[in-house]
Every structure is written in structure tokens, then in C-alpha cells.
Amino acid sequence: MSKSQDVPEKLQAQIIPYLAPAVKELLSSLSPSYQNQLEEIRLRLGKPLCLRLMNSEIFLTGSGKPTGWAEEGYVVQEDDITRTLAAISGNSIYALEEELRRGFITILGGHRVGLAGKTIVESGQIRSMKEFSGLAIRIAREVPGCGDQLAGKILDEQGLPYNTLIISPPRCGKTTVLRDLARRLSQNLHVVIIDERSEIAGCFHGKPQLDVGPRTDVLEGCPKALGIVMAIRALSPQLLITDEIGRREDTEAIEECLNAGVRIIATAHASSLEDLRRRPVIQEMFKQQGFRLVVVLSRRKGPGTIEKVIPLGQTGGKYADQNNWRQSYRLSNRVDRAAESISINPSHAGHQADADGN
Hints:
Blueprint: H1 7-15, H2 21-28, H3 32-35, E1 38-44, E2 50-53, E3 57-60, E4 66-67, H4 78-89, H5 97-102, E5 104-106, E6 112-122, E7 125-138, H6 148-154, E8 164-168, H7 174-185, E9 191-195, E10 203-204, E11 207-208, E12 216-220, H8 224-234, E13 239-242, H9 248-259, E14 263-269, H10 273-276, H11 280-287, E15 293-298, E16 305-311
Parallel strand pairs: 8-14, 8-15, 9-12, 9-13, 13-14
Antiparallel strand pairs: 1-2, 1-7, 2-3, 3-4, 5-6, 6-7, 10-11, 15-16
Helix pairs in contact: 8-9, 9-11
């Protein structure tokens, strides 16, 4: 895969062409300094055009000038949303039945367009959407090398990753770090990504738009529990990678993964082990003694900052003699003194990891 484009180049080539004329003109005039910080473009019907940046939010006036005041922002019109959706869908929005059911559309480059509007529900399931009132265009980002430091922390003596759970609050770079781990580890291992929300690989028409490595297969849009079983039976992975675990059916699938001897790296929303303690499904996963490490990320030095790497139970290997690291699976134990606090590689500090809402 060619070298990743920077954000202004991606914006001009992959996102701005889809926008309605009025919004296109405003975004085209945005300075590169703002473009480089851009995470999301938010179009809300009758509301000001909002841009979510790395550490702040701004609005654009009708002349394209950035402002911090919502009342000065350009007010998004129905035509802006209608024409943007028409361009994204090739003038056939209702042909994207599966995308409407999931509530988002992935476009060229792996960027994701979240949809707000009226949902159509049948038998307790969302079947489609209509009367669209908002679009959340999330910029897909790659930070090659951002997973290198973490990879050195999670590999055992055989060069295989410990079963690892990466946790953080939203927008701390879990997905970007996970993607880079796939890229790096697939240099030597056969990897399968279960990409239920199409965020890790960012597939467009079946092809990953983001670099996930040379020995990586992707099951896109597949529920994690089904995908894990399918991958083990059909794709012979050495490592499974997936994000946002936490449903009860995930527990059984992860148990099957462990029984098959397949390593796993996954993510979950949480800020600490104490936070996880309040989630019975995650506790059940820990009782399986499958996950050996928990990695805590933050935005302290930019998204993807590694705050803690916490061994669980008798992890062994490089952690075997570090008794001050060793933790039981009882999440009620305090972990502050049991973890090493390390910062992200300086060459990546402050880099924007994926604003994945994760």
C-alpha cells in the first residue's frame, strides 16, 4: 500500500468531492493548519456547520472563517444534507440497505459517514432510515508506527502477542493503535480482523482502504461472535483482532478462540480496571483467564498515549518476576501501583490517532 496521505490531501481528494456545493466551498477554504487537526465534519439540519478538531471544536461562518461562536456559523440547509447523501450513494441512497440499517456508510479512503434521522423499526430491529437530519463525517487516519512501542510490551518470548485487552474512554486512539498492531504483527503472523463497524480496515467495496498488513484477512461488517468462530474454522489465524467487545455472546466466542490456541487482541470502552469491574460481561471474560494484559490509553500526550500496561494473573514471560505488576482477576484490587506508566513514542507524541469515537 502506498504511503498514507496527510489529512489535507485526503480531505481534498476523498471527502470534499462528496459535499454539497455550499459546504464544499467552505471546507475548501479551510487553512491547512485546521485541516491537519480535523477529526469530524458535522452537518446538522438547521444548525451551524461544526468541525471537531483534535482538541477543540470550531464553526465555519458563511464566508468560511473559523469561529468559536455557534451563532456565527453557517446554518446547514436541507439541500446540503440531501445533495451530500446523493453524492455519497451515487443518487441511490435506499439501495444501501445494509448501510442504512447499521446507521453509517463507508466511503473511499475508509472514512465513515454516520447518519441521523428517522429510523424504521420492524419486529424490534432497525430496517432502514429516512428523513435524514444529520451527517457525521469521520476522517479515517493512519499513524504508521504508533503501535510499535506497545508491540514491544505485549510480545512473549516466542514473538507471539499475549492475549491483550486495550481500554480507554472514547476518542483516545484505540482503533488507530489496534490497526497499527495488525499492520506490524502481520509481518510475521497470519491475522484476521473482525471489523464489525468497518472502522479498523475501512473497507470500501470489499478492499481495505487502510494499511492492515500483508498477512491480514478482514471480515467486514460481521458480528464479532460469529466472525471469531468463522475465522477459526475457515481462515486459520494465529491472531484475531477486533474492537469494542462487551456483549454476552462475545464471551463464548472468545472462549472458543482460546480453546483453539489462537491469540486475540481486542478493545473495550473503559477508563480503568475499576470501570471494567462494573461490567459483568467483561468480568466473565476475565474469569476465563484468557486476557493476560490490559493496556490503558489516554489523550494525555495526544490520542494513543499509553498510560499503563497491566499484567493479569500469572502472565509469566517478561512479567514473571515482576511481582509488583502481578494482579489477580479480582477487579476490586487497586491497580495504580501495579502498572508501569509509559508515554507514547516521542516521534508519535501528539500525533492524531483515529478519532474513532472509541
